[in-house]
Amino acid sequence: MMIKTKETVKECAEDILCGVNTTAGVEQATDLERKHLPIISAPKSIKKGECFEVTVEVGKLLQHPNEPGHFIQFIELYAGDTYLARMDLTAKTTFPIMKTCVQLDHAYGKLRAFERCNLHGTWENYVGIEVIE
Ligand SMILES: [Fe+2]
């Protein structure tokens, strides 16, 4: 087991394949960030126990390559730390867009999406969601 010290945390921050990448904000995101951020479309508030649609799209801000040497390998969706869904992708034939219906029976926290690019590592984005009784 690797113990994270100040040294390893610093090295991880400099290595795109280490840990999870994100952006400080979509408005000031770099092109690399815009290509990789999973963009979540979901209602801002939902009724407890009612199904609602969630779409996660990679490359919505700036198109990401989709070829054998460079593609999105998977998309995952969580409510807070609770796993909801995953979609595995192949290069060229499938596109990094995941649509699903979700129902929440209480507040779990933010909707969080992760995606993995074979060259540029794992990326996370999130949106707030309110669960109304
Ligand atoms: Fe990439």
Description:
The protein is mainly beta. It has a single domain (21-132), classed as SOR catalytic domain (Immunoglobulin-like). Helix content is 11%, strand content 41%. The protein has helices at residues 6-13, 31-36; strands spanning 20-21, 38-41, 45-47, 52-58, 72-79, 82-88, 97-102, 111-117, 121-127, 130-132. The chain has a 5-stranded mixed β-sheet, with no helix packed on it. The chain has a 3-stranded antiparallel β-sheet with strand order 2-4-7, with no helix packed on it. β8 and β9 (121-127) form a beta hairpin.
Short recap of the structure:
The protein contains two helices and ten strands; from the N terminus they run αβαβββββββββ.
The CATH architecture comes to Sandwich
The geometry reads as globular
Mean of residue pLDDT values = 94
Classify the secondary structure makeup into a structural class: mainly beta
Q: Please tell me how large the radius of gyration is.
A: 16 Å
Unique ligands: fe (ii) ion
CATH class annotation: Mainly Beta
- Continuous helix count: 2
Strand order in the largest sheet:
1-9-8-5-6
**Main pleated-sheet profile:** 5 strands, mixed
Low-confidence stretches: none
Q: Please give the share of residues in helix.
A: 10-25%
> How many discrete domains?
1
Terminal CA distance reads 43 Å
Please name the CATH topology.
Immunoglobulin-like
Count of β-strands? 10
Which band does the percent of strand residues land in?
Answer: 35-45%
What is the element string, with H for helices and E for strands? HEHEEEEEEEEE
Within CATH, the superfamily carries the name SOR catalytic domain
